[in-house]
Amino acid sequence: MSQTKILDGRKVAKELEAEIGQVVENLTKQGITPGLTVILVGDNPASEIYVSYKEKACKRVGINSNLIKLPAEINEEELLGEVERLNQDDSVDGILVQLPLPEHIDEEKVINTIRADKDVDGFHPINIGKLMINGSGLHSCTPRGIMEILHRYEIEVEGKNAVIIGRSNIVGKPMAQMLLQENATVTICHSRTKDLKEHTLKADILVAAVGRAEFVTADMVKKGAVIIDVGINRTENGLLGDVEFKGVKEKAAAITPVPGGVGPMTIATLLKNTLKACQERRG
Ligand code: GUN
């Protein structure tokens, strides 16, 4: 019989939302209600779904949410103007421009235009820099949510070998930095890594952020490892993570399921970032 702990992201997210809801309520009584504005450009169906989750989550905790839908044909200058307007609107604490943007718009330019202290995605170079230097600033929601899971399940990070598969700006790179900040020994693996298994077999904490269904199999995992699955892969066989759950679960000490693991924590962390942005700017 397996003793593997299932790291229940839905449960942790619910706890976190309850805590956020309390603080938002207190702030609202003082006349300050945190506000998140999401800009959605075009009609990408996946983006529409993600944005609707974000709006519902804001409602649950009492954060004001505002959605600005712009046509796919909007030019870069107009979009930057919209961001500038939100930068100056005192009632807007968080600005989130849903990605991907249409090809003719430079994503980096848009992200760089968002005020760093309203950048609740944690994508602005100032926030990335702060994370690198001392762990301050607003942080990317998915890796921050993963850290929250590790903390709430009292999984020790210090001195552990943490291996991350994936080097994206949104997950892999900030994840490495957060684990390093808490004194893990960190390895980042990617598509050009030679002998991936040699690295993953040394992992006490293994984070899979590859974007390939069931990429991590039991033979790649050390017995007793903590497995964090960031994957959301829609396949003919349904929604699958980056980890082959059934097999890997037998070897792991703890594992996040898909769905119900990392996903809910990403949204809860967005709420936390919005609250943090509000408190730091006008709390
Ligand atoms: N598109 C997919 N994930 C994200 C995210 O975390 N933030 C933004 N802004 N867009 C996304």
Automatic annotation (TrEMBL):
It catalyses: (6R)-5,10-methenyltetrahydrofolate + H2O = (6R)-10-formyltetrahydrofolate + H(+); (6R)-5,10-methylene-5,6,7,8-tetrahydrofolate + NADP(+) = (6R)-5,10-methenyltetrahydrofolate + NADPH. Residues 140-281 form the Tetrahydrofolate dehydrogenase/cyclohydrolase NAD(P)-binding domain. Residues 7-121 form the Tetrahydrofolate dehydrogenase/cyclohydrolase catalytic domain. Gene3D superfamilies: Leucine Dehydrogenase, chain A, domain 1, NAD(P)-binding Rossmann-like Domain. InterPro entries: Aminoacid_DH-like_N_sf, NAD(P)-bd_dom_sf, THF_DH/CycHdrlase, THF_DH/CycHdrlase_cat_dom, THF_DH/CycHdrlase_CS, THF_DH/CycHdrlase_NAD-bd_dom. Keywords: Amino-acid biosynthesis, Histidine biosynthesis, Hydrolase, Methionine biosynthesis, Multifunctional enzyme, NADP, One-carbon metabolism, Oxidoreductase, Purine biosynthesis. GO terms for molecular function: methenyltetrahydrofolate cyclohydrolase activity; methylenetetrahydrofolate dehydrogenase (NADP+) activity. Pfam families: THF_DHG_CYH (PF00763), THF_DHG_CYH_C (PF02882). GO terms for biological process: L-histidine biosynthetic process; methionine biosynthetic process; purine nucleotide biosynthetic process; tetrahydrofolate interconversion. One of its GO terms (cellular component) is cytosol. Pathway: One-carbon metabolism; tetrahydrofolate interconversion. The keyword Metal-binding does not apply. Belongs to the tetrahydrofolate dehydrogenase/cyclohydrolase family. HAMAP family: THF_DHG_CYH. This is Bifunctional protein FolD. It comes from Orenia metallireducens. The gene is folD.
